[in-house]
Every structure is written in C-alpha cells, then in structure tokens.
C-alpha cells in the first residue's frame, strides 16, 4: 500500500498545534499599570452603592452644565454623587462646593471627600470625589466620567484644596 504525501495535511496539523499552544500561554497584566491601579481603587471601595454609582456613570461624556447621562460636568457629577450616595445636597458649581467643605489635608482624605482644582487660574474650576489610595472619580472634559490618579503631576500642579462635606 502506497500513501501519497498531502502537503495541506501537514499545514493543517501544524496550524492546529499552533492554535492549541496559544491557549496554554499564561498572560499577566502588569499590576502597576494605570488601569490596574484604578480598578484596584474601585475594588477597595467600602460603599457598594458608590461602586455601582461610579460604574453606572463611567464613560458618560462631559457636557458643560450637563446633569444627566446625555452629558455631565464635574460639579454636576459631584452634586449627584454626594446627593445619591451620602444624602448631602451641595451647591451646583464647583467654586461654591469648595466653599462649603470642611478642609482636610490630602493625606487624611476618606472615601467620598471632595478634591478641587484650578486649571484656569486662581479660582476653583474643577471637582472630583476621592476614592482611596490616591484615586478619585470625576467628569473629565476630554474623557468623560473616569477614575483618575490624583498623584499625577498634571493634577498635583493644579490641586487647590480638599475636604469633606459631612
């Protein structure tokens, strides 16, 4: 009995072996990436309602004066979060929100405290809500609602004050 060599059979076997080997590789995510650290901050939240609120709003685009899922600004996001999660009614504008907090050192912040920035001069013009481990959530003008790293130089340079509303 004589068998003829079929080259396509060889390639088929080689392809199957290659594809099956891909499934056995272990891929690891660097735990020090920005995304991994933000996810870690979210997983360490004490308040499950806060976790749900943030995940529900993450990615909603920024819209100046916005107060719904069609678009929201930073002070509107802080306003809604504080009202829904903590039962606290804040003023609507970030500058006014900064005036009603009890000032706290950045190293003593707790989940739900507010952090304020001045990107355009001396007045407060941006607000976020502190989570933990140096992370906060805010409505970014370019990225929408996002968890961000407060220790980044871009935020440290414009950081104005922080504190609690309780």
From TrEMBL:
Pfam families: NLPC_P60 (PF00877)
GO molecular function, one term: cysteine-type peptidase activity
Domain NlpC/P60 residues, every copy: 44-166
Keywords assigned by UniProt, alphabetized: Hydrolase, Protease, Signal, Thiol protease
Gene Ontology terms describing biological process: proteolysis
Domain of life of the organism encoding this protein: Bacteria
PROSITE patterns associated with the record: NLPC_P60, PROKAR_LIPOPROTEIN
Gene3D superfamilies given in the database record: endopeptidase domain like (from Nostoc punctiforme) (3.90.1720.10)
Family the entry assigns: Belongs to the peptidase C40 family.
Name of the protein: Hydrolase
Native organism taxonomy: Bacteria, Pseudomonadati, Bacteroidota, Sphingobacteriia, Sphingobacteriales
């Amino acid at each position: 009995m004589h068998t003829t060599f079929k080259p396509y059979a060889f390639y088929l076997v080689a392809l199957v072996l290659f594809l099956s080997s891909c499934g056995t590789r272990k891929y690891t995510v660097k735990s020090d990436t920005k995304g991994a650290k933000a996810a870690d901050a979210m997983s360490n939240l004490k308040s499950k309602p806060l976790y749900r609120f943030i995940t529900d709003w993450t990615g909603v685009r920024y819209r100046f004066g916005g107060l719904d899922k069609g678009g929201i600004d930073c002070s509107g996001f802080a306003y809604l979060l504080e009202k829904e999660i903590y039962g606290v009614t804040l003023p609507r504008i970030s500058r006014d929100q900064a005036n009603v907090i009890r000032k706290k050192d950045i190293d003593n912040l707790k989940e739900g405290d507010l952090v304020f920035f001045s990107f355009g001069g001396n007045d407060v013009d941006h607000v976020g809500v502190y989570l933990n481990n140096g992370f906060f959530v805010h409505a970014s003008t370019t990225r929408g609602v996002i968890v961000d790293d407060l220790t980044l130089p871009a935020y440290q340079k414009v950081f104005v004050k922080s504190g609690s509303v309780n």
